[in-house]
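Internal QA ticket QA-208
Title: Verify multi-chain structure generation after dependency bump
Assignee: T.L.

Test input:
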Amino acid sequence: MAVARGAGSVTTGARRRSPGQRASRGTISRSQIVEAALRSLRANGFEQMTIRRLAADLDVAPMSLYRYIRDKDDLMDEVVEQLLIQSQPLPAATGTWQARLTTAAEGLRHLLVKEPGALYVYLRHPVISPTAIRRMDMMLKILREAGFDAASSKTAYAAIQTYTVGFAALATSRSGWTPPEGTNRTASELVAMTSPKQFASGLRYLLSGIEREAGPAA
Amino acid sequence: MAVARGAGSVTTGARRRSPGQRASRGTISRSQIVEAALRSLRANGFEQMTIRRLAADLDVAPMSLYRYIRDKDDLMDEVVEQLLIQSQPLPAATGTWQARLTTAAEGLRHLLVKEPGALYVYLRHPVISPTAIRRMDMMLKILREAGFDAASSKTAYAAIQTYTVGFAALATSRSGWTPPEGTNRTASELVAMTSPKQFASGLRYLLSGIEREAGPAA
DNA sequence: CCGGATTTGCGTACATGTATGTTAACCCGC
DNA sequence: GCGGGTTAACATACATGTACGCAAATCCGG
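Actual output:
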């Protein structure tokens, strides 16, 4: 459905080994597949990262990967954990709780916008890899230390996460989209509202409301 | 990728007319295709709504549809406009601006959660069908009437929309997902935070912050 | 070292959206 | 009514993820 057309000369993923020529045992492992996937992401982006191309990179038949991954989503889960590790130098524990949460949210927004594969995973199911959980715990801790009770902290965290992922999703859906020729100006304007500044404004509203509605003084 | 398995006996979309037997001209039209799509959505859900099945319903070859729709996304755009029309009895102009915006946001949340096809479209590109634009203008008007200036209104609207679509996306991604057996309790808890109540809390935070940070008194 | 058991790489097949080119049905002027 | 031109319906083909089951390679007890 609206499949991304390769940029012309991108190979379709034919294996180099001729069919019938079987690779020797132990040629591939799960971690090698994950590495190949990360390489492919960096080289050609998420859309071009297909099972067949990964198999070709590893010089193996496509179905061979399925001994090590349940399906492509399973592979992407692990890829995203790696991306999280690489991208989230857990924010320094300084500044107001608002500033610290803003840093954390901004970090995730940045990753999800830069890496459509990561956004894909976040939209498929909850991300519960170790680093994602640590990140959540960190944000909950910031809220607790700011004086919010356990329930309010969870509600606030969920709202921030929802806003962050939602923003990344809408930003991504807008990038590379142009309104059909005869379109209302208002529409095109709103489409532009996908900047980091806009993200920051909305997040400021949200944090301000959290303070007012759920804070220890409330 | 993690393709939905049909519930056993769901037909694969074979046409009734034998191949080589061509349908007479004027058998299908764009609006008939949209109607068939809406029927299919109601009957079997978005995942089961395939081009081949629509064609079978209309007793026509699959590629025949493409004379009337650019691609499946184009079809879904029109389907969503119909769903918006059917589902959005534009909220009564009563109550505080917060209450009115809450009603509007709640309406969209409800539609997107009930109808995965609509969420799909909202995540693909901006929705600028007439009803969607009217809805946006209505929300902007509510904000202007509450005393916000044009710029603040747009920023606030964008934040609310982001939060609403984000919530629907995460709620959908969680429904029908069960954590892998040995999962941390904290994770499973947060997964549950996808209720309408949770939506309302986050929205209350957001609206409160909008009032405080962007209001006429600010 | 040998033969069954186990592991693992793989061939085939199917459903999906849709690009591309073909052809049959219709329309219209004569 | 008939023949040329237009266009709607279509057949074919391809890339994708992956279910299913086979077969080769390796392992292990004797």
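Spot checks passed. Chain B has a mean pLDDT of 91.
Status: verified.
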